[in-house]
## 1
Amino acid sequence: MSSTDHVMFGIDPTELLQSYGYLALVIGTFLEGETIVLIAGFLAQQEYLSPPLIALAAFCGSCLSDQLMFILGRWKGTAIIRRFPRLERNLGKATRLFSRYETALILGFRFIYGVRNVTPILMGLSGVNHLKFLALNVIGAAVWAISFTAAGYFFGQAITLFMEEFPHAGRFVLGGIIILAVLLWYIRKRRRKARQAAEAERESGTGHRNTLPEPRRGEEGQDGPNP
């Protein structure tokens, strides 16, 4: 995997991990998520890092980030969502999932493309019990951290075995990874444009933007009223 394949906030996560180790992993998962964990798992297979410590650092960064987003959602959720168009675009999908699968969504929103960033804010805004979110978020973060650490580790193991069997195939492997990354980027871009067009058509037809959920009266007293 080339160190230039993934750049997060203008920073190469591979260089970060090699220089600052687990601290970089905590910060990276607080800010972003999957990419840096997968790379860390790959480096663990190369014996640069420890898999259990990778999972622990990823768990801490992800869990802290989502708890902060939940609190901000409880405090200024409406303003935050209106301020960032990307969050507002994904609000409709997150709200539909939330209305049908509240507990399952808290456990698994990290694995659902398009709703990861907005879901903790939505949970706080809608008045989900803080202790409930904390407990389920801890479980979800643990499963997520272990899963992506393992995925990166076994990916590194597969690449190592392949390179041992075909030592001159490195360029082809790198080329395949780059092509796959570009293809995934293109597919995601097309899907995002289609989703935005559908949402714009739906909003123009109804004459309003995505509807934000009302806070639950029974739980406003526990965490304070939503502004």
Note: The chain has one domain: 13-223.
## 2
Amino acid sequence: MRERASLAVRTWRSIEVELLGAAPRAGRSLIEENWRPDAATAYCHRCGGSVGVGEAAASGCSACRELSLPWSSAVRLGRYEGGLKDAVRSLKFHSDRHAGRVLGRALGSRIRVTLERRGDPRAILVPVPTTEYRRLWRNRGVDHTLQLVRHASAASGVPIARLLSRRHRPPQSETPPSKRVENVRRAFFLRSGAVVPSGVTVVLIDDVRTSGATLRACYRAISMETGRRREMASRIVVATVAVAGERRRGDSTTVAEQEIADQDEFSYPAA
């Protein structure tokens, strides 16, 4: 009987790995491998794209310096690949609490450093929300981004503010790049009774960023409540565990160039 039960468990786990592409407990693997986030000099602190040493300044990198972004700073831990990718997927699809703790605390530490560098005395962490459908049917009943944010709050000392709700739409990962902006347009809105505190820096947190369309839609929902959209952009920091969709150095595409593609479909009315 025990052998049958053990075989059933092993079979189910193998099916999960085959379907979802990540083994459970990837968070433990990160700890065992002494994983460390990318160095702060490895990415642009304005757009979040990968850069070489000395290629970015306070005004951004060569790829984003001329862009009008709806945030003023970007924080990330690394590229969406290898062990980091496995850990994100393990948290998202297997409720891997170890991965949530390791990644959330690492992100919180980086957020704390960024806020200190900016001189922001007051800030809130705002998770990019999931829908009830996705939480129950795709994520095993767990809001994985909220798990990340709770650990990030513990590491940074910054309080959490669940300002946003989300209408169900197809996942961005399953949506063609050309349709991602439209897919999340008006998908986010302020929760009933939620108020954006005056003069507070808003740190938007998500697990993976590809084109930035989701974070832009969140910015739009928050800034519409304040009525001061361009001013709000200077108070927003985006923080993600990983950045996907980047090409290796020497190729032609950067995260900032994907932002240009988004801007072609995303307009900013005058403040």
Note: The radius of gyration is 19 Å.
## 3
Amino acid sequence: MEAGGLGAGAGLQPVLDSGFGSRLYSSLVKKLKAQGREAFQDYYRELFGERWDGLAAALAGESDSLPFVASPGSEPYFMDSASVFAASALDLPEEGRILDACAAPGGKTLVLASRLEPTRARLVANELSADRRRRLAAVLDSRLSPALRARVELSGRDAASLCRRMPSSFAAILLDAPCSSERHVLADPTALSAWKASRIRSLAQRQWSLLSSAFLMLEPGGCLVYSTCALSPAENDAVVERLIRKEGGELAIEALADPRSEATLHGIRFLPDRAGGAGPMYVCKMRRVPGPGRAQAV
């Protein structure tokens, strides 16, 4: 520490010792440690304000589920219409490899596979969990034609570190990242009673690891779609913003639109109270472009 200067601890201590600083610190700690239904409601009411009660009711209601058929004559897979939008937003190449980085339970993988037909591209459906990967395989085996199923390869790697083995290896990547999934939390009393705000912070860090790795696995010119079913901007725009700051001019955000959606800083979101039951779903579309410069919107 330089003479006359203050270290980080020394500068912070007077604030913590003051009445205001002590109350602020206690409030932050209390919010992070708070658990259960009341803590959940307080957190999202602070985030959404007067809108929260109506949104919470919509989250507890019926979703805009539709029967998606990946191959003619195959068994339908019921999924949220916003999930179909997210997988459909990915631009597929004429040839090369496509990665579904966190593929289970398989709905978005089916959407991607159903779009392979006019191309010569192949799809890698990656899922780290062996249990979830088995269920993913069952979904694909039962709902894809033999010709399409042969073009989908299963993988069990951790997508957050896969970039070390496979840099610049995929022409298109869908990252539907693990997230808070508040709609499911509300429907599960056990999950709701265990809910903590600190989980959002942990998930956002995992999402960052996955997104930064996915970007490094993308070929120059390739398309990447990042999606979650989370409500908090900490798991959505904030994760994308971190990537923009890291990658600079190699990353271009591309515009998305749907009449049911709401614009966010870097993408769009579907919230069930204003999207006919669809969502929650956050979707951001980006492209890896070579050359210096600043990250830009297209």
Note: The first strand starts at residue 65 and ends at 68.
## 4
Amino acid sequence: MVELIIITGFLGAGKTTLLNQLVGQSQHGKKTGIVQNEFAPIRVKGELLELPGNTYPVMEVNNGSVFCVCRLSHFTSDFSRFIAQHKPDRVFLEASGLSDPSSLAEILNDPRLGGRVRLHAMICVADATMLGKTDKLVRYVRQQLMLADSIILNKMDAPGHDGKEQLEGYIRSLNPHAAIIPATYCNVRMGDVIKQREDQSLPLGRSTRPDVRSMVLRTAKPLTGDGMHAFLQEFSPKAYRIKGLIKTDKGLCSVQCVRDQMETRLLEGREGNTELIAITDAFTLGQWKKGYETFSTHHP
């Protein structure tokens, strides 16, 4: 099973620098492949990325985001051929700065991958000098932060940011479950940013279940505490992952669910609306919205 490690982050945050760091630290004995979704200084002509002592196969995607549904067939075909040709044990995917990773399962779950790929970790690089500025204007940044397993708070040495405590507080307001690693030039250890447990990895491309989809539920309607737990108990066992925020009568709660494992946390002093992301093959967005409506009505 190929381990897929996805690197997201806004334009200029340092994704390619992190890619360079992690590829250089990748475990000996593991054959590594790379998918790059935008031009970067370390890219070379041809299909190989060269670092000291090693050469890595590279697949380039230059015409839009790999997570855009309009690229579904083309990207999946190319990615399947890339895996078949190079037989990597691990693939790093550097996404475009304007990528919305909430469509990950919808893009990659395709019979042509034949159960060969497993999402191992999702890492977001956040620019400390721009955080709180770009994300209010670009919804993609918000989605990248919310879905990440680990967040690299990069450029902490640069002047003009709001300070470590305030920046981490802002990230926690969107994703209190992710590991946050302050860094300069993305100088981090691979073991600190990739800690995804095997039982939480999402299998992709299973030919026997080609209908896995990702979806986003947004609503201003609140749930009670009991209503929220009942809603999650109904839908979480049917989903690979549910992650995001739920508006309740007590305030905004962060949510992270992996099948029967459910974790919720009240965000003191935070206000906002429900915004949840699910990856599932057991219900549609319409059914999910109807279920939410039911619990908001029956649990006043």
Note: The longest strand covers residues 117-127.
